[in-house]
Fold each of these.
Amino acid sequence: MELIINLLQFFVTMLGFCLSGIRYLRHRTLSYFLLTCFYGCFALGSLYWTLYLLLFFETPRIFYVSEFGWVSSVIFLYLLQYTLSSPEERSFSCRKSLLAPLIGVPLCAFYCTFGDILSNLLWCGMMILVSYRSIHGLVYAETQTGKGRNLRYFHIGILCYVAVEYALWTSGCFWPGDSIFSPYCWCDLLLTFCLFGLLPATGKAVRT
């Protein structure tokens, strides 16, 4: 089951890569270029993981190869957030953004008891940064009128992505992902839909 979901995730991210790449070629906007890089890096990470499962019927022992791609994708996602934000949004004061570290730091400490400390610190740190900026952007978008409010869909999409990542990692601490009845399996499937959902959400944000 894990192989099927990873194959689906690879094809979905490749589809996102192609569609966002086409939009970049049409509009020549930095936002679509960064989104294309996000999908491309994520797809490369998924490709290694999927091929390893396909050839050796087990999860990769050297998982850092995939993590290079996945970590790079989150970096591009953060750059996309910054690109879509305005100077007014960046200077906007929002205490609700503190929810990101309040949730992320305890989860990071929890994950470190189960897996590689460096990897968990890196991943949770990036999730905190991304969710911090999205909470900040979402609150700011709610104060806007007209097309300015369309940015909220982009920030909601990223927050869904972060929430599902946390759920995936948490379920992975308790359940294996090789059964269709495993919560890890369903969280991984939900992550696939969240990834693709970032494409239309970014489209709405770019048109503001």
Amino acid sequence: MSEENRLGDYLRARRELVTPADMGLPAHGIRRVPGLRREEVAMLAGISSDYYLRLEQGRDRNPSAQVLDALARVLRLDDTATAYLHQLAAPRPRARRRPSRRPSVPPATAQLLESIGLPAFVTDRTLDVIAVNPLASALVPSVRVGENRLRSFFLDPAERALHADWSRTAAQCVAVFRRRLGSDVDDPRVVRLVGELSLASAEFRKVWARHDVRPVVDKPIRMNHPQVGELSLTLSKLDVDGPDGLMLAAYHAAPGTGDAERLALLASLTTGSARRPADAPGARTAHGSPGTR
């Protein structure tokens, strides 16, 4: 995303995803652009073509809320994407000082990871894993402290093989990542991560270029696990209180199902292999030690 024209980049990307047929327009002749033409968006939104062109080119960055809502309707944005559009158009706050330290997991959250009895881990705002319990690493081996979930999804073949719906799951991960960042994408770590993945993965480039955004909601996950077989789970995410944008994620199965039984089997295998005579397993954190007991 261009640092100088985030609103225009977003409008252009979403315009290319809407077809004339979506809006009841005839599609006569050869079209040189995917999706709607600029003048078609302007006409449907009730604004001038010149004004819309200025918005896309970044020459006008202060559209009214009414104009943004009209554009959201034409571009077929849902509530989350509409809120994101308004966020991109809002005046940017003064650049905040970024902490030089890595965020730390609150003691209560580390204790929860250890005692929850479910595969669970904590990520920061760039989706770096900063704490994980043994069951989460047994379920998804790439979920390790220091690994990045986006990097694993797009660059780790084992991660791809694990997910039965890899394309959908990876796209959702990118959309949630973009939504959590909002307009604050100039964090050097974000810039480096997006640049690395854009160079290394054509699939990431394609998904990132769509500018999809999704809220953080429970989502179904289907896996082909090498030890316990097929699993249909739900991945739930909760914000962790504090200034660092941490998120706790946990996989769980519907009670009384075969998936719950297979997840329990994995837990028993993990406990048996991880326990040592003088050391019970605990959640690992970015500091390399078990969480607070």
